[in-house]
Design brief:
The protein has 360 residues and is α/β, with parallel strands linked by helices. Helix content is 36%, strand content 17%. It folds into two domains: 239 residues, Aspartate Aminotransferase, domain 2 (3-Layer(aba) Sandwich); 101 residues, Aspartate Aminotransferase, domain 1, CATH 3.90.1150.10. The protein contains ten helices and 14 strands. The protein binds pyridoxal-5'-phosphate. Pyridoxal-5'-phosphate (PLP) binds next to helix 3.
Length: 360
């Protein structure tokens, strides 16, 4: 038998075994119709139940109020970097506030600049994006405020969200959505690529307050307008059907575990195991400020790059997959998304201990 694999990839990432198993069982015959869910019309009654079921579960688990739309879009979170300013800023004179926390915020900022004035209200660039800025003051005339909930590459995460007053808070939650309880009503718009905590790549979840859609720009190309996807609920064109189906299964799985309270407790336990171990070691070093540490993407360094390379190579041979830090920053990173269990993190720590003993 092959060595058991522990999947620490940052995304696409680990999915619950139970979800993959169920998808496998139903792959050739969905709902007893004798066809795969991939082969049926997105307007059929069987798929209608899938997409409506996925939305219903998302609303229930996350607590999405009625004055928000839930949309399943395409183009990744990266397309949202552009769609958000394109829809919410109505002229080049309008301004949006952005918090600059790393690689993903930077990409969002770049796109926003194409559509209006971008005001960087806070940045952690001075310390190589190793912390989340605090006491952020937003400007009063901003149309919206944009933050990145969790910087997947740098390994920093908002522990609590800033209060943007009456200005809608727009949040990229790609790498920590459904990892903890949130108050959706504090946000104007939440978006996330599915491929970390909720499904396969190809689906982007957008949760947007209804008034923001109503007030959004007109005259946009059809597919890039939120109005289009609201008018024909995520079905203007062919949606990523299989991805939405998997999201529905992941939602069932989250519910079965006890919802977001249970998920959050489990994520806290996992992150504590790994951070405690790193803190007590002089061999591995955390490079981010303690109060800003991500519970989803734990990053650390070893003494030199050659040792890091050896670590990753031996970890891979031992079945610990995806521990290489992002190419832009190097080092090591373990992504501990919802589907990673406590046992997987303990196995990683055991491996890290052994590697330290052998290479000290
Ligand atoms: C925080 C964050 N935002 C945006 C993206 C881009 O997502 P996509 O590849 O779905 O466009 C990622 C991808 O890893 C991410 O981690």
């Amino acid at each position: 038998m092959a060595t058991k694999k522990y999947n620490f990839y940052a995304g696409p990432a680990i999915l619950p075994y139970e979800v993959l198993k169920k998808a496998q069982d139903e792959l050739l015959d969905f709902n007893g119709i004798g066809l795969s869910v991939m082969e049926i019309s997105h307007r059929s009654k069987d798929f209608d139940a899938v997409i409506k079921g996925a939305e219903e579960k998302i609303r229930k688990i996350l607590g999405v109020p009625d004055n928000y739309y839930v949309l399943f879009l395409q183009g990744g979170a990266s397309l949202q970097f552009g769609m958000i300013p394109m829809n919410l800023l109505k002229s080049k004179d309008q301004q949006a506030d952005y918090v600059h926390t790393g690689e993903w915020a930077k990409k969002a900022i770049k796109e926003a600049k194409l559509f209006g004035k971008v005001n960087i209200v806070a940045s952690s660039e001075d310390k190589n994006f190793s912390y989340i800025p605090k006491n952020i003051k937003f400007s009063e005339n901003a149309v919206y405020v944009h933050i990145t909930s969790n910087e997947t590459i740098g390994g920093i995460q908002f522990q609590t969200y800033p209060d943007s007053g009456n200005v809608p808070l727009v949040c990229d939650m790609s790498s920590d959505i459904f990892s903890r309880k949130i108050n959706v009503s504090k946000f104007g718009l939440i978006y996330a690529g599915a491929q970390k905590n909720i499904g396969p790549s190809g689906v982007t979840l957008v949760i947007i307050r209804k008034d923001l859609v109503e007030n959004s720009a007109d005259g946009l190309t059809t597919m890039l307008s939120y109005k289009t996807h609201v008018k024909e609920p995520s079905l203007y064109n062919t949606p990523p059907c299989f991805g939405i189906y998997i999201i529905k299964l992941v939602m069932d799985w989250i519910e079965g575990l006890g919802g977001l309270s249970a998920i959050e407790a489990r994520n806290e336990e996992k992150a504590k195991i790994l951070y405690d171990f790193i803190d007590n070691s002089s061999f591995y070093k955390s490079v981010v400020e303690k109060e800003s540490r991500s519970k989803m993407n734990v990053v650390w360094r070893l003494n030199n790059e050659a040792l890091e390379e050896k670590f990753i190579k031996e970890a891979t041979a031992a079945g610990m997959i995806g521990l290489k830090g992002h190419r832009s920053v190097g080092g090591c990173r373990a992504s501990l998304y919802n589907a990673m269990d406590v046992e997987g993190v303990k196995a990683l720590v055991e491996f890290m201990k052994k590697f330290e003993m052998a290479n000290k």
